[in-house]
Amino acid sequence: xxxxxxxxxxxxxxxxxxxxxxxxSCVVRNQVDRAVLYQMFADEHYRLTRLARGNExxxxxxxxxxxxxxxxVIDCGANIGLSAKxxxxxxxxxxxxxxxxxxxxxxxxxxxxxxxxxxxxxxxxASHATRGSLxxxxxxxxxxxxxxxxxxxxxxxxxDDLLLEPVCRDCEPFIVKIDIxxxxxxLFSQNTSWIDRFPLLVIELHDWMLPGSANxxxxxxxxxxxxxxxxxxxxxxxxxxxxxxxxx
Length: 248
Known about the structure:
Number of strands: 14
Number of domains: 1
Largest sheet: 7 strands, mixed
Helix content: 25-40%
Number of helices: 8
CATH architecture: 3-Layer(aba) Sandwich
CATH class: Alpha Beta
Oligomer: single chain
Strand order of the largest sheet: 6-5-4-11-12-14-13
CATH topology: Rossmann fold
């Protein structure tokens, strides 16, 4: 269990753990960053032991490592790098691809998570390779949205294409985490076969933020016919494959 030990008003935050290898410091810029730090390391939104199938998922991770392969975690919407930091500490043998479209958030993520097993991409995810534009709805540094337009300055990459890149090619898919401020509508609109390759998909949906748009419909349609459990904890849905396989 992690503990936040610094006064909340300090920019430099110390995070402690009974395991000294998991203790670290990071920098927060404002209250939004502090809220992210709390979610990741006080509330531990992505802690697998909260799940009835947590031990099963941990066994999948261990079996990938035992088989001499590298578990792959794709962090879509990495923000200031604290989710990637959490994954890198909990799964030290994994390779984490942290994808974030906003430049200042990305710079902060690189400072907060200087781990050799975390690879950063200044980009956004989409159902296909395209371009998009960044929009700030004025809700803080965790609410930037990317809208596909084909001509914007944001590179948008598909998960299918990412899995073919050299950084991922020798890895075994393990977790894909998606928190992309409503971009899930476009992401799940087509080309969703990659879902079947990940034992665990963790996603935050945003119908609450985009009322009347049925923004979650494509995600729900994409997983409805698949044999996967659907578990809602805090802000996240944990979609767990019911056909977990041993990579050996």
